[in-house]
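Limitations

Structures in this collection are predictions, not experimental determinations, and the ligand pose is part of the prediction. Treat each record accordingly. The example that follows, with NAP as the small molecule, is included so readers can see exactly what is and is not provided: the inputs are given verbatim, and the output is the predicted complex.
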Amino acid sequence: MRAVQVKEYVKGPLDLTVTEVPTPTPSADKYLIEIHSAGTNFFDILQIQGKYQHQPPLPWVGGSEFAGIIAAVPTAASSPRFRVGDRVFGATQGAYATHVLAPEASLLPVPEGWSFEDAAGLFVTAPTSYGALVHRAGVKAGDWVLVHAAAGGVGLAAVQIAKAKGATVIATAGTQRKREIASQFGADYVVDYTDKAWPEQVKKLCATHRQGNGKAGVDIVYDPVGMIEASLKCVAWNARLLVIGFAAGKIEKVALNRVLLKNVSLVGLHWGMYAKHETEAVDAVWKGIFDLVAQGKFKGTAFSDESFNGLETVPKALKALGGRETWGKVVVNVISNEKAKSKL
Ligand SMILES: NC(=O)c1ccc[n+]([C@@H]2O[C@H](COP(=O)([O-])OP(=O)(O)OC[C@H]3O[C@@H](n4cnc5c(N)ncnc54)[C@H](OP(=O)(O)O)[C@@H]3O)[C@@H](O)[C@H]2O)c1
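Predicted complex:
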């Protein structure tokens, strides 16, 4: 098979190359999948540089999220969930390749009518945002939700989920294009958070359009960037602030007096660990997401301003992602759309 194999750590994505490596043989406990599309994540960039918390022994194949077709079922499984030919998406080490082996727990069926391209970006972002907003913050109709970096991978998922649950969404993003995208995916108001006065803008929107305690600010903050401290300036009584990530590169320290004075909760979410500590929640979260998909309230967020076709475009896709030039999920079509169509 062909793969983006890492034999030694590289300086950056543009040093990656595609090589021929042996195709995995069917395994006792894993499915063999023919990959059609691979999602990119910032942690893929850290991993190729040797800077990620999970570094397999060299050599290894990069990438994690994928969507494709089952090519072989686990040879020792008596009643496998999937059959040869089923369309699945998931995540495991080695998605930047034409084939990968993956255990059943890391696979889900591609939703009806979804492309591989959209499904390849679903496995990490959608449950992170659904788990945070629905299970951790209890979002409900009438809430006002402030979504930071709203055009990013988890951000666009959060905008859609908050809207689907009947909330009003204020979306922040750093460029006009990204704010347009947040609006297209349902945000009610957009704010440029490169303007230092952005909390004032959020407060003004709430003061103008909300009643009672809500006049002071939003009920929920969804923060994948590291903006909790500033967000505390524009929250309502009883607000929940979701700590999702630190895309800006700095782990914040928060003055806890504001947490007390405004009677608010700081709520963390570590989606990847649910599979270990709270497996029953994983099924509930995915059921919630598939229900929204079936109702047409959650759609794929594959970045479409530029296409990445073929494994050779992995370096370019990762560079674009790392350069903060993209929105939604940057997906590489391992089997290009044209080839996939001609196979049908
Ligand atoms: N807690 C969890 O379980 C969990 C799960 C998945 C992801 N995460 C974390 O959530 C964060 C966002 O993930 P994602 O997949 O949405 O990433 P993404 O698609 O790359 O989006 C990140 C967004 O952050 C904003 N940003 C602000 N400062 C930035 C900077 N200095 N460099 C790059 N981007 C910056 C950018 O929006 P603007 O250009 O508009 O500012 C960008 O769109 C990451 O830190 C990730 O590790 C956490």
